[in-house]
Amino acid sequence: MKFFTAMAAAILSSAIISPAQEKGMSAEEIANTIILDDAKVRNLGIKVVETNEADFETTVFSIGRIEEIPRQHSVLSSRIAGRVVEINAVEGDTVSKGDVLVKVESRQPGSPPPVIELTSPQDGLVMLSHIRIGQPVEPANELMDISDLSTVWAVAQVPEKIVSQLKTGTQAHIRIPALGGTNFDGQLIRFDTQASRQGGTIGAIFQIPNPELKLRPGMRAEFSIVTSKRQNVMSVPRKAIQGDVAKREVFIKHFELENTYVRTPVVVGEMNDQYAEIINGLFPGDLVVTDGSYSLGFVGAGSGMSLKEALDAAHGHEHNEDGTIVTEEQKAARAGSDGHDHAEGSASSSQLIFMRIAVGILLVLLVASGIKSSKDAKTIAQLSKTKN
């Protein structure tokens, strides 16, 4: 009796565990798994970032221009009439306060006539030059414009309805298309004195440090003005998000297989100029593809090694096409096939059927044994009563 019970339990356990071991990846999971070789990873320029919770900014978009700061602009002129005999700076030159920029021969009598040196009134960049050698000059003439661009203004035209959300010190991320989309950070210092009646906007003036003098007056600027900030929000760079509004998805780097990426659906919340809030679909620590994400969406089967090859290389043992481990029975079936192809897993399936039949037979034997034991017990009880 005990022997039958133990045997049934062992076979039943095997029958239950086997399907779990046999379970592989579904067709959809395999289709969403992209395995590349090293060359394709380099060609696609794939880069990943680790997802985590961070501050998330709510922003308002606006456009505007870079402007020089009026108090940092000066004009070079001559106090006496004469003619230009020497020019030491041209447009685009950087000058320092006190540098001799122009020499003017005076009209006052003398042999030779006296020459007046005109020096730079400030540090800065020569923005405009209005003179040539031999050109006559008068005290009313502007000879050069010099501007200090180490700090500039970025003026955004913002709708009047959001002015109440903007306070002095409000930050903005400012993108300059002319500089390849380089971003600068600025702080709101004031508003223009008048609003635009036609456009319903007002100029919001942000001050930006410009130590490398890359920003020049007149450059177009795109503003992402921060109106609020939330903490501990899961987000990823916007360029990681693929798909349409109804079906957003990202590509996650497989935690185990090299050069393997998994297409993963996500639920996206709010988006700003740089990041997208992720409500569902990702966990902290996931490695999400940013650069190359768009191209990766068009990479199909045959782009690299198969799932089977990747698993074999990672684990050091053989796998089936669906990712399951090749069993000893499957290996034996292949070895004994004499070159004939068999469907993978057929030996394992036969074993499973045999185990289930064996369990059924053993259960029947157990029931029969139980009935027999019950009858024997009743017989012994009746004999005992008879003797008494």
Automatic annotation (TrEMBL):
Residue ranges of the TM segments: 353-371
Name assigned to this protein: Efflux RND transporter periplasmic adaptor subunit
GO MF terms, alphabetically ordered: transmembrane transporter activity
CzcB-like C-terminal circularly permuted SH3-like domain span: 235-296
GO cellular component terms attached to this protein's record: membrane
NCBIfam families in the cross-refs: RND_mfp
Keywords, comma-separated and alphabetical: Membrane, Signal, Transmembrane, Transmembrane helix, Transport
CusB-like beta-barrel domain sequence ranges: 151-227
Family according to the record: Belongs to the membrane fusion protein (MFP) (TC 8.A.1) family.
Signal peptide limits: 1-20
Domain of life assignment: Bacteria
Residue stretches making up the CzcB-like barrel-sandwich hybrid domain: 75-148
